[in-house]
Amino acid sequence: MSSNLRGKVVFVTGGARGIGAATARALVREGASVILVDLDEEPLRAVANELGDNALGVVADVSDLDAMTKAASSGIERFGGIDLVLANAGIASYGSVAQVDPQMFKRVIDVNILGAFHTVRATLPSVTERKGYYLIVSSLAAFAAAPGMASYDASKAGVEHFANALRGEMAEHGVGVGSAHMSWIDTPLVQDAKSDLPSFQEMLAKLPGPLGKTAPVQDCVDAFVAGLAERKRRVYVPRWVGVIGWLRMLLTTGPLERSTLKRSPGVVDQMDAEVVQLGRYTSARNERMSGH
C-alpha cells in the first residue's frame, strides 16, 4: 500500500466504467477515498456501492460547470476536501471532417476540453488549499493525429496544453499537474469503435509495430495510480509512448516550457488583477462581435 495515497481524497471523472472505475478500485485498495463523477448513472452507482464507505458517486455532466461545482461540493462535504484529481472523462466521434455531425464534433470538444477545465475549476479551491495534484488525461493523439478522429485529436492536443498552462499557473502554489498520454487501451471507447467500424480495425492492423496494439486497462490503471502517488509530470502507457513524448519535448516544447516556468511566478497574479480592472475577459472587439 502506498503511503502517498493512504487517507487521500481523489476526484475521478469518467468513473462509471473503464479506466476510471478500475483506477478507483485500485485507489481504494491503496487506502484512498474516491469521488466518482459520470453521466451514466446505473454503472456509476454500482461502482460506488461496490467500494462502500470510501466512495461517493455523483451523476454530473463534465461539460456543465454548475453540475461539476455541485459534485465537488458534495465530495468535500462527504470527505472534508479534495487532494488529487484524475480528469479522465472523454469521448470520441466517428467520421472525417467532411462527414462528422457538427454537433457531435462540438460535443467531443465540450466533454474533452471544457470538461477538463470545469473539473479543474470546480475542484481548484480545495486542491490548492491542500497543495494537491491534477492528472489530466490526454493521449498519444496529442503527438500524432489519426485521420477520421479530428475532434478527438484536437481535443487531446488541447488538453495537453491546458495541463501545461495549468502547471505554470499553479507551481508557485504548490499544486502539481501532470498529463497522461496513452496509445490504444482496451476501454469501452476503443471496444465500441472496433465493433462499429471495421475501418477502425483495419487502420489498427496497418499501423507499424506496437502502434497498432491495444494495451490492457490494468496497464493504464497501474500507471495512473503511480502518477497520482508520485505526482508525475508525465504518464505514458505503454512506456514506449514516452520515447515519442520525450523526443517531441526535446525538439519542440520542452525548452520553451522550462523557460516560461522560470518567468511565470507573479505574472499570473498580475494578469488576473489587470483583467479585474479591465472588467472583461477578452478584447472589446470580441465582446462586440459576440454580443456580450
Molecular structure report:
55% of the residues lie in helices and 12% in strands. The protein has helices at 18-29, 41-51, 65-79, 102-129, 150-170, 188-196, 198-206, 217-230, 241-263, 267-278, 284-290; strands at 9-13, 33-38, 55-59, 84-87, 133-137, 176-182, 234-237. It is built from 11 helices and 7 strands. It has a single domain (9-263), classed as NAD(P)-binding Rossmann-like Domain (Rossmann fold), CATH 3.40.50. The protein has a 7-stranded parallel beta sheet with strand order 3-2-1-4-5-6-7, with helices on both faces. The protein has 292 residues and is an alpha/beta fold.
Summarize the structure.
This protein is of the alpha/beta class. 55% of the residues lie in helices and 12% in strands. The chain has a 7-stranded parallel beta sheet with strand order 3-2-1-4-5-6-7, sandwiched between helices.
The profile of the biggest β sheet is: 7 strands, parallel
CATH class: Alpha Beta
Order of helices and strands: EHEHEHEHEHEHHHEHHH
Average pLDDT reading: 87
CATH architecture: 3-Layer(aba) Sandwich
**β-strand number:** 7
SS element count, helices: 11
> What is the overall shape?
globular
Radius of gyration, rounded?
Answer: 19 Å
CATH superfamily: NAD(P)-binding Rossmann-like Domain
Note the gap between the termini: 52 Å
Output the CATH topology: Rossmann fold
* Estimated helix fraction: 55-70%
- Beta percentage is 5-15%
Class by helix and strand content? Answer: alpha/beta
Low-confidence stretches: none
